[in-house]
Structure formats: C-alpha cells, structure tokens
Amino acid sequence: SDKSPIDVPSPPPPSMTLTQDELKRIAAYKAVDFVQSNMVLGLGTGSTAKHAVDRIGELLRQGKLENIVGIPTSKKTQEQALSLNIPLSDLDAHPVIDLSIDGADEVDPCLNLVKGRGGSLLREKMIEGASKKFVVIVDESKMVKHIGGSKMALPVETVPFCWKFTAERLRRVMEGYGCEAKLRLGEKGKAFVTDNGNYIVDMYLEKDMGDLNAVSDEILRLPGVVEHGMFLDMASTVIIAGELGVKIKNK
Ligand code: 5RP
After folding, report:
1. How far is CA 66 from CA 30, 42, 60, 69, in A?
2. What pLDDT, on a 0 to 100 scale, did the predictor assign at position 228?
3. What HAMAP family does the database record attribute to this sequence (predicted)?
4. CA of 106 to the centre of ligand 1 (A)
5. Distance of CA 245 to the CA centre of its chain
6. The pTM is what?
7. Residues contacting ligand 1 via CB (< 6 Å)
8. Which value, in Å, is the radius of gyration of the alpha carbons in the chain?
9. 82: helix, coil or strand?
10. What pLDDT, on the 0 to 100 scale, is given for residue 10?
11. For the chain, first and last CA: distance in Å?
12. pLDDT digits 0-9 by tens, 65-122
C-alpha cells in the first residue's frame, strides 16, 4: 500500500505562528471535507476531535450537510453533539459506520496509533473498528518513530476488581521494555473512572516495543484487561497539520 504523503500546500504567512490548538482545528476541518450528507459518522473524543464535531454541527445548521447520524465515542462527545443538535445513535442500531474522525496521542510511520490518554479508548476502538473509513487528525507533535516509546504512556483499561493484581501482571508482561505501571488518577486523587466504569493503568515504557501485534495479544490475554490504547492497522488516513501546511497520509 502507498504510504507516501500527499502534500496539500497551505503555508501560513512567514510571520505568523499557529498555536497547537489552531493546528488541531486545521486538521479537523480538513477531515470534515470527507463528510457527505446521509452518512453515519463516528464522532471522536478529545480537543482535536472537538473541532471536527463543532464543524459538523455548523455545516448541519447551515444546511450544507443533511441527514447525518453521529455515533459518539464518549459521554463528553455525546453532550457536545447534543448541544449542537447532531442526531445521535449507537452501534447496536448502526453496526456499520461510514466514516469516523478522531484524534490520537501518537502516530507512527505505518499509521499505527496510541489513543486513550483522554480515557475513551474502548468506545473509540469499537466504533472506529466498525468504520469503513477512519480518518485521524493530529498536529505534527503527535508523529513518532515508534508508538508507546519513552515519552508518554500506553493506556490499558482494566476492570476495577483487584486492579493492582492486573497492573502487576501487565508490568510483568511488559518488563522487557522497562515498564512502570501506574493507576491513572482523576479528581481529588481518586482513580480515574472511564465511561464504562473501569480504571486505566498507564504503562510507561523505557524501550520501544518490538512486535506490536505480539505485545497487543499478550496484553489482551490477561484476565482483568478490557482493552489497550494501541490502534494497529486501523487508520485509513492521517491528516497532520504543521507550521508548513497540511499533510495527508493514506494507508
Ligand atoms: C481520547 C483520545 C484522544 O483522541 C487523544 O487523547 C488525543 O487527544 P487530543 O486531541 O486532545 O490531543 O484517544 O481517548
């Protein structure tokens, strides 16, 4: 498959520096160009996806899009979409989604992703995995050589029951990569609870993972693990907004 970037030149004037949030908005608006009337859309979660949902709401309000059904990947996105009058449904009613648009925490050169630092990885993976097309929107800071490297954590959603036991099993599975497993904390120092009532264990790795599929299988085999944040071979397209313009990478 062709992974070479197609450059869409849109450089800002030399004197102007764009903020990270402006870059996120540029990527999001570009992705919404793929949206057509009558589509079932997976609506992502996070500060980048929020711009895409805003834009879809705006186009619906202006009558430039019609008959859209949104499938939100989190309660937060559901609230945002409802406030914009985007009609919503779920995977039970719409098991096949035309297009999903979502952000990512890391993207590697093969378009493998780490997601879930916002905590919505399970619903995101279910919905984006059921999509005919999955468009990922990022600013250029999210591009990495290897996902799950030392910079940030790989999130794993676990059941709350004896989470320490599960975190220790996870740590042992990942020991070869210099792993530290930490429970994600939310408000008032209490465990962060996902939309599904679960916890997140963040895996901080010192070394790059080798065979991502093998690591994925090992993690998913552990009882107590619900899902992890590696999205392997799922993205169809990644839209990367940078200071010098927008790049679109296709699988
Ligand atoms: C939430 C996610 C987000 O897409 C990811 O964390 C990127 O977030 P942001 O767009 O705010 O940088 O996976 O679970």
Report:
1. 19, 16, 6, 9
2. 98
3. Rib_5P_isom_A
4. 9
5. 22
6. 0.93
7. 44-49, 102-105, 115-121, 124
8. 18
9. helix
10. 64
11. 6
12. 999 999 999 999 999 999 999 999 999 999 999 999 999 999 999 999 999 999 999 9
For the purposes of burial, counting CB atoms within 10 Å of the CB of 3, is it exposed (0-12), middle (13-18) or buried (19 or more)?
Answer: exposed
Give the model's pLDDT for residue 152: 75
Contact partners, residue 47, CB within 8 Å, separation at least 6: 21, 24, 103
List the catalytic residue out of 58, 66, 79, 124. 124
Note if 175 is an active site residue.
no
Q: What is the ipTM of this complex?
A: 0.98
Q: Buried b vs exposed e over 72-95: b needs ≥16 C-beta within 10 Å?
A: bbbebbbebbeebebebeebeebe
Structural contact between residues 170 and 205, judged by C-beta atoms closer than 8 angstroms? no
If you measure from the C-alpha of residue 137 to the centroid of ligand 1, how many angstroms do you get, rounded to a whole number?
A: 10
Q: Tell me which residue of 154, 150, 149 sits closest to 203, measured CA to CA.
A: 154
The H or E element that residue 237 is part of is strand 237-242
Ligand 1 atom closest to the CA of 50, numbered from 1: 10
